[in-house]
Write a structure and sequence with these properties.
Distance between the termini: 84 Å
Radius of gyration: 42 Å
Strand order of the largest sheet: 25-26-28-29-30-31-32-33
Length: 861
């Protein structure tokens, strides 16, 4: 009963579709090969071997009028499309017209039939959300397949597509339990669903107009005559067109109706009313779902409009088919002015060749590509650098019909990277190489001297009375003097010399290519030192006044010492100190008698070993606060409590530990001590859960099993990894960068956090910095200390804060000693501090007592 009523309603709908008719005969007989795939009632192969169904009979009537001879070619849907594209058939009925198909098929203008797609199942499917996880049977290569894929992606559902070569197989798959829902056009579905025990669901979509199709640019006369007869017959309600629709809308139903039900035909009007009500309700539901889809589409468009990257689509002719608003803004064009155009309308011939070469590579390979492109934007002479990502756009059958690209302007990123590079390797005042760059150059020069059997030297230059100038005339005058000194010394050096500024009033002159004999080398260095002192003795002009400077120079020869770059620099500094003690404008060569300092280092090394064995090293903790003096964390700082010498500063023994490799076992010992303290503080009301930062040396992190050793300490002590922060320095990025990043990532997965200490004082590369799993940047106290009086330090702090914010990293300032420091840092966007303004480093017991006092003072006890 229900099945028959549904078929009757379907017939009535078909009766209401407006069409027209007309007549025209062809002048001569023509053989027309027609692809026929089984899709009743629209198209099927008749018992006589000729096309049948709505499209088949309609074409046969047109053939009679035009004196065409029809040859039916039976094929499934996908094979029919393939044969049509290859010209093996002339016409294919029942083809939905889409922009993609217009690229390779020809269509007439007047639609032969209007249709839509519908889901059929034995359970209710109300929306695309109900398709999640469902097995969906549908025709391979059909418009329903490509549409549903996009629909599933948009609604973030994951149906399982079961592709078949005919609609009956799709419905049979649901009937046999091989699928949960089938999709087809409503003609076939409404007609045959009851035979498979299925019902039409509320999920209706993709209204489409159906046409006859030909191979592109072929058989235009066939399409023209089809258009003619459709135009004539649609206007005549008594034409064969409407007869065909009526016949196939009702065919096969009367035979299935029981005789006693024929009396219900009198209720057709009532059924029609019910149908209208049903359609009305269906339209409301479709409108609601259409509104939801439109809302989501608007949201997506809003996202694309808000993205500050150029997003575009191109077809295979490399014409723009979509551009987002930011693309239009960047090019200074409207959307209408860009669509359909190519890059030749925007860029120079050389730039177009590079862009199109990248486009064609994606279209040919079918693979994603990433590249940098440097172009001049229309109306501008400035070059901009874009990072462009391209992906191919593919049809359901895998063919590429275009590409999608996203181009992001990274010009400012490169400029910022250059500024960071300048800060890392060059002095901001004089623009000379800084200490880090000098050490790099010195190491290379020493190795080259050994290879060439030559000698070299380091001249350590210290200006006299520089601090007096700063005190008397201010830091601006001091900076100006440094610039003039740099310029004057630079004028007196040649390609064999490298002039660098270490900091403060200290310069270094690296000399290469000295004669191998010691006497000749020392004579040349003596003349150079005297010339340098003479240059410094000449007056400088500061604020329209003459200022005399003078200096002291210490010299160390490569051949005199078996030291690395740091050692050569240190020996030259010792010689400079000796010259300074002798009076102004003097120079001294490094003397072996100065090895007392080296002996002291050897004693320190032995003492470190004993201290480690006897547990003489202990950790003190310096609190880290925000502006409201809320405790944020602690930094663990090592102290050496020597039984005879008392507390020894880390500045005295850490460099020795680094050079000798003792820093690795010492660092492990201190890390375990810090983790034990974390476990102890789990019972403390104020320190439970407060993270502790432990400094890690470059030697430590470069050991192969560093990550495993840290995890072992956490396991052994029971400390929470979430409360452990490891402080690394920029010097760790000089070598083995990839391995360092891998170790940090493995520890990050365990829960350990990382901060970059003393940022801005050493090696800085945005490429590696962005890869590091960092949580925090720490501004070196050297920049913070003179923040209020040195504009260069202020500029560096602002740059570091901005960089941290752009990378979503916390920025903490070290060396905060006054309230004015806090206010200035806060104005720059830095809100976490560490320094003597808040607290000096304290032993654990004193720290606990101090925190308890603060609680009492705040009135919480």
């Amino acid at each position: 009963m229900k099945t028959c009523l549904k078929r009757l309603m379907s017939g009535l709908i078909c009766v209401l579709i407006p069409l027209a008719s007309g007549q025209l005969r062809a002048d001569e007989t023509r053989l027309v090969r027609v692809g026929v795939y089984e899709n009743p009632p629209k198209i099927l192969l008749g018992p006589d071997g000729q096309p049948s169904g709505i499209f088949g009979e309609l074409l046969r009537h047109i053939a009679d009028e035009e004196d065409w001879q029809l040859e039916a070619v039976s094929c499934n849907w996908k094979a029919c499309l393939q044969q049509l594209s290859e010209g093996q058939i002339d016409l294919l009925p029942d083809v939905a017209r889409t922009p993609e198909r217009e690229g390779w098929l020809g269509f007439h203008d007047i639609p032969a039939l209007n249709s839509w797609s519908r889901a059929y199942a034995d359970t209710e499917i109300e929306s695309p959300l109900d398709l999640d996880g469902k097995r969906v049977a549908l025709l391979a290569g059909s418009v329903q397949l490509s549409y549903l894929r996009g629909l599933a992606e948009g609604f973030e559902v994951k149906p399982i597509f079961v592709q078949v070569d005919s609609y009956p197989k799709a419905f049979a798959a649901v009937q046999q339990g091989e699928a949960d829902v089938a999709f087809s056009n409503h003609f076939f579905g409404d007609y045959f669903a009851p035979d498979y025990g299925l019902e039409g669901t509320a999920l209706i979509f993709q209204p489409s107009r159906l046409f006859f199709a030909t191979p592109l640019a072929q058989n235009a006369e066939l399409l023209s005559r089809i258009d003619h007869w459709l135009g004539v017959w649609r206007e005549d309600k008594r034409s064969v067109y409407h007869d065909i629709l009526s016949h196939w809308g009702e065919a096969g139903q009367a035979a299935e109706l029981p005789r006693w039900l024929q009396a219900l035909l009198a209720g057709a009007v009532l059924l029609l009313s019910m149908l209208v009500a049903f359609v009305f309700l269906l339209r409301i539901q479709v409108r609601s779902r259409t509104h939801i889809l439109a809302t989501r589409e608007a949201q997506l468009e809003g996202v694309l409009a808000g993205v500050e990257s150029c997003i575009f689509n191109k077809d295979v002719q490399l014409r723009y088919t979509y551009v987002n608003p930011f693309f239009c803004k960047t090019m200074g064009q409207t959307e209408a002015g860009l669509l359909g155009r190519t890059d030749a309308d925007l860029f120079s011939a050389e730039e177009v060749e590079k862009i199109h070469s990248a486009d064609r590579a994606v279209l040919l390979s079918g693979e994603r590509s990433v590249c940098e492109e440097v172009v001049r934007l229309p109306g501008s002479q400035e070059t901009r650098t874009f990072l462009s990502v391209r992906v191919p756009l593919k049809l359901a059958d895998g063919r590429i019909w275009g590409l999608c690209g996203v181009s992001t302007d990274i010009t400012e990123t490169y400029r910022q990277q250059e500024r960071i590079h300048q800060l890392a390797w060059y002095d901001s005042v004089t623009h000379l190489p800084n200490r880090q760059r000098l050490l790099q150059e010195l190491a290379g020069a020493k190795q080259q001297a050994e290879d060439r059997k030559q000698d070299g030297a380091v001249l350590f230059i210290d200006l006299d009375h520089f601090r007096d100038l700063n005190d008397a005339q201010g830091y601006a005058a001091g900076d100006e003097l440094l610039r003039q000194v740099a310029a004057r010394l630079t004028d007196r050096v040649n390609e064999r010399f490298t002039l660098a500024r270490l900091g403060g009033d200290e310069f270094v002159l690296l000399v290469e290519g000295l004669e191998a004999t010691r006497e000749q080398a020392m004579n040349e260095l003596q003349q150079l030192a005297q010339a340098t002192l003479q240059a410094l003795a000449e007056p400088f002009i500061l604020k329209a006044q003459r200022h005399r400077c003078g200096g002291s120079i210490g010299i160390s020869l490569f051949s005199d010492l078996h030291e690395d770059a740091e050692g050569l620099l240190r020996c030259a500094e010792l010689a400079m100190n000796d010259a300074k003690s002798a009076g102004s404008n003097c120079f001294r060569f490094f003397d072996p008698s100065m090895q007392a300092q080296v002996q002291h280092r050897a004693e320190l090394e032995a003492g470190i070993r004993v201290g480690m064995e006897q547990g003489q090293f202990e950790l003190w903790y310096q609190p880290q606060y925000d502006r409201q003096q809320q405790l944020l964390g602690l930094e663990a700082l090592v102290r050496w409590r020597h039984p005879e010498k008392g507390l020894i500063s880390p500045a005295d023994f850490i460099p020795v530990a680094e050079e000798t490799g003792l820093i690795v076992p010492l660092g492990d010992q201190l890390l375990e001590q810090a983790c034990q303290q974390l476990v102890h503080w789990q019972q403390h009301s104020q320190l439970n859960g407060v993270p502790v930062a432990v400094n890690i040396s470059a030697r430590q992190i470069h050991t192969a099993d560093f990550a495993e050793r840290v995890c072992a300490v956490l396991d052994r002590t029971g400390a929470s990894a979430n409360t452990l922060e490891l402080e690394v320095t920029e010097s760790m990025l000089v070598k083995d960068v990839e391995q360092t990043i891998d170790k940090m990532r493995r520890l990050r997965l365990r829960g350990v956090r990382f901060s970059l200490d003393d940022f801005g004082t050493g090696y800085s590369s945005l490429i590696f910095l962005k890869q590091l799993p960092l949580d925090k940047l720490k501004i070196d106290q050297g920049f913070v200390r003179d923040l209020l009086s040195d504009s260069n330090d202020a500029a560096i702090v602002k740059t570091v804060v901005a960089l941290g914010q752009s990378m979503d990293l916390t920025v903490l300032a070290e060396g905060v000693e006054t309230r004015e420091h806090c206010d200035a840092l806060a104005a720059m966007g830095c809100y976490e501090y560490q320094g003597y303004y808040f607290s000096k480093p304290l032993p654990p017991a004193e720290l606990e007592a101090r925190l308890a006092e603060q609680v009492v003072e705040s009135g919480t006890l």
